[in-house]
Write a structure and sequence with these properties.
Elements lengths: L1 H6 L7 E2 L1 H13 L1 H12 L2 E4 L7 E4 L2 H10 L4 E2 L8 H4 L8 H11 L5 H4 L3 H20 L4 E2 H18 L7 H15 L1 H16 L8 H23 L6 H11 L5 H14 L2 H16 L1 H15 L6 H4 L3 H13 L5 E6 L3 E3 L2 E3 L4 E5 H4 L42 H18 E5 L7 E2 L5 E2 L4 E6 L2
Parallel strand pairs: 1-2, 3-9
Antiparallel strand pairs: 2-3, 4-6, 5-13, 6-9, 7-8, 10-13, 11-12
Helix pairs in contact: 2-3, 8-9, 8-20, 9-15, 10-12, 13-14, 15-18, 15-20
């Protein structure tokens, strides 16, 4: 590192100054993701947004930079400090921790997501999906449109809690979603900046700070729910999921604290259902929109499943369905950006990245980079034929990359490859709104307004 500082021949990262930035601001607030894509197309694969006199926000949009940040020199780029606004919620769980503690927790929990355990969840996944199918069938009969995004969120939350924590739990799923949305919105990059600006103005006029009581109340409500889940698990030992079993055992053995068990549960709630729900929602959206490819996978599903519930072995027999989901996650990556803070000065592709830089990898923009994706806005699942994906490990990264990549990927992909074909066997999906939905990009990609669909029962 010292040597790099001495040389200092590295170029300065191009800066989008405050004046330029102000020009883009209205469109950034209205449609942030599309605007970032345009900004990067105009300014290149690395650009620094200087919002004030600080070091700014550096956005990188090329696999070489991304490989360096997430893998080659990952020790220099930490997630922990950028997660600080969520510290009261996530504590030191797997997503939020670093160093020795992360290693220990990763070692403990990663095996619980192995494929060999995921197959044990097939039954719960299909049973829970059938509950939603019945609800949608009833709506369909009464000609009631469905809020697909919301319904799918509840489904994925039920599956997560029942498979990982306890199948006996009875909790208010809507309350969990309400609290999580409030906490995530408050911690988003956009809301944090608005809050900082408002606080500055209030200070100037000696006004009182904005109360954070609603966030505290939401946190307390989640604390109560988690305590309740743990109590239910103790009362019903046969119901306990592998993840919670592993955590409680590690606590009994004196390897981790009681607080660590709580933190890991909160981290699962944070990372484990909003993401899969987003992937499923956008897959259904793409299905409703792309007749040609939808017919292709419907044919594949009908041929393979013959009206049955998918089993583990069926997954590999439906490659086009998997490619369809992958393409939906290319255009709508549930986690649209990764943020890191650098510890030391660094140099990437000849550019100087100063110590304490806030670096963003915009997955949404990377998945549309015209150098790597032909006609990037076009929906074409065949991009994911194995021969087309060679050398794209850092170009397609919906689950991240490097050692901090998603541990839940096997569970997430299995859930998607069971639920999506299961739903398609029962319904035809039609979008009510003709206009393309505007995306809300707080933390997870969602439609800004409810994604209403007319479902017609076909079974
Ligand atoms: C389609 C679904 C999912 C997507 C797109 C997704 C995406 C991601 C991404 C991009 C990261 C890395 C974040 C970063 O580098 O800053 C991540 C990490 C993580 N995900 Fe997922 N995820 C999904 C499902 C799940 C599920 C089902 C679980 C658990 C039940 C889960 C648990 C985690 C955890 C604990 C981490 C942190 C890993 C670590 O730092 O060691 N995810 N996920």
């Amino acid at each position: 590192m010292e040597k790099r500082e001495e040389k200092s021949i590295a170029r300065k990262i191009p800066v989008l100054n405050q004046l330029d930035f102000l020009k883009w601001l209205p469109s950034l607030y209205k449609n942030p993701l599309k605007t970032i894509v345009k900004l990067l197309a105009k300014n290149g694969d690395v650009v620094n947004f200087k919002l004030s006199n600080d070091k700014g926000l550096i956005i990188v949009n090329h696999p070489d930079y991304i490989q360096h940040i997430l893998k080659t020199n990952q020790e220099n780029y930490s997630r922990k400090r950028v997660m600080l606004p969520l510290h009261d919620f996530l504590g030191d769980g797997l997503f939020a921790s670093e160093g020795k503690l992360w290693e220990q927790q990763h070692l403990l929990l990663k095996p619980t997501f192995h494929d060999k355990f995921v197959k044990d969840y097939f039954h719960v996944i299909s049973e829970e999906t059938k509950v939603l199918i019945e609800e949608w069938k009833s709506n369909s009969k009464k000609n009631i449109a469905c809020d697909v995004e919301f319904d799918v969120n509840i489904l994925m939350l039920r599956i997560l809690l029942k498979t990982q924590l306890s199948s006996a739990i009875k909790v208010d799923y809507r309350e969990i979603i309400r609290c999580l949305r409030l906490i995530l919105k408050n911690s988003s990059y956009k809301d944090q900046n608005i809050k900082m600006a408002k606080d500055k103005i209030r200070k100037l006029f000696l006004m009182k700070k904005i109360s954070d009581a609603p966030i505290k109340e939401a946190l307390q409500s989640l604390e109560n729910i988690v305590a309740n889940i743990r109590a239910t698990a103790i009362e019903n030992p046969e119901s306990v999921g592998l993840a919670l079993q592993t955590l409680e055992k590690a606590k009994e053995d004196g390897l981790i604290s009681d607080k660590q068990v709580r933190d890991e549960i909160m981290n699962f709630i944070f990372a484990g259902f909003d993401t899969t729900a987003s992937a499923l929602t956008w897959s259904l959206y793409c299905y409703a929109k792309n007749g040609f490819w939808s017919n292709q996978i419907k044919h594949e599903i009908d041929q393979v499943l013959q009206n049955k519930v998918p089993e583990m072995e069926n997954i590999s027999e439906m490659p086009h369905t998997k490619m369809f989901i992958q393409e939906a996650m290319r255009l709508y990556p549930p986690v649209w950006s990764l943020l890191r803070l650098s510890h030391q000065n660094d140099e990437i592709n000849g550019y100087h990245f100063p110590k304490d830089s806030l670096v963003m990898i915009c997955i949404y923009a990377l998945h549309r980079h015209p150098e790597f994706w032909d006609q990037p806005e076009l929906f074409n699942p065949e991009r994911f034929l194995p021969e087309n994906m060679k050398g794209k490990a850092f170009v397609y990264i919906p689950f991240g990359q490097g050692k901090r990549a998603c541990v839940g990927k096997p569970l997430a992909m299995a859930e998607l490859q069971i639920i999506f074909p299961l739903l398609l066997q029962y319904f035809k999906f039609e979008l009510i709104a003709k206009k393309e939905p505007v995306i809300n990009a707080d933390v997870i990609i969602k439609p800004q307004k409810p994604l209403m669909m007319k479902l017609t029962s076909i079974k």
